[in-house]
Automatic annotation (TrEMBL):
It holds the Pfam family HTH_8. This is Fis family transcriptional regulator. Residues 206-240 form the DNA binding HTH domain. SUPFAM superfamilies: Homeodomain-like.
Amino acid sequence: MKHFYTRSEQIQGIIKGLNLTKTLYVSSIIIGPEHTGKKSLAQSVFPNAPMVSGEKQEEIKRALATSDELIITNFEKLKNQSELDFTNKRIIATANYMGNAALIDDLFAFIYTMPSLNQRNEDVQYLKELYIEDAKSTLMIENSTIDTENIPLDLTLNNKSLKRSVYTYLIKHTMESDDIEEIIYYYLLKHLEGNDAYREYLGLYEKPLIKAGLEKFGSQLKLSEILGINRNTLRKKIHEHNIDQEL
């Protein structure tokens, strides 16, 4: 059985409403942005219902002819919606946007709105912790000293970008020098060309070195000593890489 993870009162209200219709032949639709968990929520409440995408018109026709209960995802992509007959059917649909509001109102007894993650702060933190544990297990990370409190979370694509930002952060913070060298090697193998490539790609090494040094030591003088280069040379490189504008 697929489990849906949430601490949002609004989402729990949707789940409660769907549960109340589990024994009734009524149709419901969950509308909200992509990657907010609409499909997972429907599957968690109706685990035995067949699921078909609205992009597959013929499959939906066959499913409606043989099943009393059906999950239709991407409902907004389904053509000829007005020809559908949901009589004596339990349909749970998901859609990224409303579409024809009057038609939706005719087809569905219950219309639920799934909010974006940036409107569900309690879920952001809850899912973040779940993804951290998932990433540690998947990537076999045993280092417990990684700072996970200040992970820069990307919510632009809801669950998808949130999960990716957690995984990316943990990967970056567990890399060893061999891993970094290999990444740079494959990047250069793909992109290396031109007549002045040495100078062009030197920034791959210099820029992060100088940025990290400035953040760690907080002083150009101290960093020039650490790197063993002239302070004026350091200032020149800071200007070349626009580092002074980014810190």
